[in-house]
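Worked Example 4.2. Consider the chain below.
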Amino acid sequence: MEMDKNSLLKFSDYLNTVSESELAEDIHYFLYEARLPELLALQSCAENLRETYYGRKIYFRGLIEFSSYCKNNCYYCGLQRDNKKARRYRLSEGDIMQCCEEGHRLGFRTFVLQSGEDMFFTDKRLCRIISGIKGRFPDSAVTLSIGERSRASYQRLYDAGADRYLLRHETADESHYRKLHAPEMSLKNRMQCLYDLKDIGYQVGAGFMVDSPYQTCETLAEDFIFMRSLRPEMVGIGPFIPHKDTRFAGYCHPQARHTVILLAMIRCLLPKVLLPATTALGTIDPFGREKGFRAGANVVMPNLSPKEHRKDYSLYDNKICTGEEAAECCGCLSRRIRNAGFIPDFSRGDFIGWKRREPAGSKNF
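Applying the procedure from the previous section yields the following structure tokens:
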């Protein structure tokens, strides 16, 4: 499917109505056949849509990786339960608060609490942490990225003050999902979790790995159809990077090109979405984040975790910025954003039009 620049201006409407089979053909075209002028036109379309709603702002989120324990065996992940070489740690509540204090001092107004699925962190513990952060820093948003839980758990965490929840669906194709995850895991449950989060009132983030094992243009089309149904406020995609201690060690040498093209297509599918230029993209390409910004991305997540634990949160190999101080990393990234012609923004950076619902339950735990 060849498209000129004028027709691409209507690409958003097209992506939201086209059939799954046609979408698979379109994805294949852009990934493997499109010429440079068409790719530049796609990028221009994505940039124009991003600027319509968010201008040239790139929102900063402070990432706190607070536990490397996980009960799951996702075959691609360095934190998988059966990886005996993984170095496990948990931050204390005091450690997490100290990370937030440092982040707030640096200007962050969103804190992303991320971990493996670690059942040590009960609802009671998490609610205490969330309410503590919101009490100490009421001008800040709290994002959670802690995996699959019950709807009741999600409701309690929301009532405690959590604003956003990141839960990559990884693939919307059942057969593909089975090839990447242990038998006890369920794509149906994963999707239900995302719909529950959306229904409760969170700003919800879905997403997938690009060029993951067994991925095809057909499975990518299913991802787009799922996102079209869910309408997430955030979408996180990044290149698949193998981890040396998983079954996919040495699987590929990832490149940025496909991720950048799909970022632009996602911006066109969901014009108001908050779309990160991920650390993984910056890991495989020294200018990966800048390429992401020019494809419509508008979020970065520098690491606020204690420096001594960053290498232990090893989802994939060779992750960048594990040895830098938070202030050093933010200063460097801010300069790069300005040099690329964008504006670093440390505000909450909420999804356009989102308003928090009143808590449904008590905050007393």
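The chain has a mean pLDDT of 94. The radius of gyration is 19 Å. Compare this with Example 4.1 before moving on.
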